[in-house]
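for the recovery benchmark. tokens below, seq after
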């Protein structure tokens, strides 16, 4: 499909709906587009390790399963917290904070993504964090607004909230958010698990705490109030402390950052 044909699909989707319509946005990015893209990635996995980013359409899991079952192909897959937490019925028309690509789909699709994640067809959860200045959000205009959700610091709690409901474990969380991403990046010799000799990057996590994140911590955003996660009173889990390379950098109990930055870039 050419770029012109893609743009025509977008225009047709909004033709009979006003720009506020989330369903029009959803229809402007049909599942077949994602299916076609994932099939191309799976075909290329015969030649090198390929990675599927931001999987939103559970219909792709069949070709992903076939590809992963082939010993001659190398494939890894990620999805994002918003695809695991929300469905299209939760999104009000005009609330452009939820606009993303691919779009958030229906509730049955969300449950199938969870099955794929728990069943290891999906290897990891990644953020797709996308902040922007408020004018680009274009509130009320799903057609022209900036795409991508903000709220990186709330996504661990968002994932755990839904994982807990489905009886997933904290070991699952560590695999999805830590070990498998480090494995993809080739960093498991220094990161991704708590072992002697590895870089001590970890957080102290209370999995039983349930509250809205902005009820116990500040929103350290340049543009505040732009995230769909912060005021959710049912988010489960709270970070009580964070260490980077063995140095405490955040004390969640007091909601303070400690000392100068101690992180360093890894160039692959």
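predicted aa per position
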């Amino acid at each position: 499909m050419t770029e012109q044909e893609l743009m025509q699909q977008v225009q047709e989707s909004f033709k009979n709906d006003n720009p506020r319509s989330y369903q029009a946005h959803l229809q402007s990015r049909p599942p077949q587009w994602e299916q076609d893209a994932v099939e191309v990635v799976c075909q290329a996995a015969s030649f090198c390790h390929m990675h599927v980013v931001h999987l939103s359409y559970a219909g792709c899991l069949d070709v992903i399963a076939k590809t992963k079952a082939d010993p001659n192909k190398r494939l890894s897959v990620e999805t994002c917290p918003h695809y695991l937490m929300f469905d299209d019925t939760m999104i009000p028309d005009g609330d452009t904070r939820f606009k993303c690509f691919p779009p958030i789909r229906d509730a049955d699709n969300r449950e199938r993504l969870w099955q794929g994640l728990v069943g290891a067809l999906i290897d990891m959860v990644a953020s797709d964090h996308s902040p922007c200045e408020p004018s680009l959000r274009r509130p009320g205009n799903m057609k022209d607004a900036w795409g991508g959700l903000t709220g990186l610091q709330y996504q661990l709690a968002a994932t755990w909230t839904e994982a807990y409901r489905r009886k997933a474990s904290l070991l699952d969380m560590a695999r999805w958010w830590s070990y498998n991403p480090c494995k993809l990046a080739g960093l498991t010799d220094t990161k991704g698990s708590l072992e002697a000799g590895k870089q001590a990057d970890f957080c102290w996590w209370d999995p039983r705490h349930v509250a809205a994140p902005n009820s116990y911590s500040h929103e350290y955003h340049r543009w505040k109030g732009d995230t769909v996660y912060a005021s959710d009173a049912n988010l489960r889990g709270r970070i009580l402390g964070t260490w980077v390379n063995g140095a405490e950098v955040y004390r969640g109990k007091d909601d303070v950052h400690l000392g100068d930055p101690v992180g360093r870039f890894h160039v692959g």
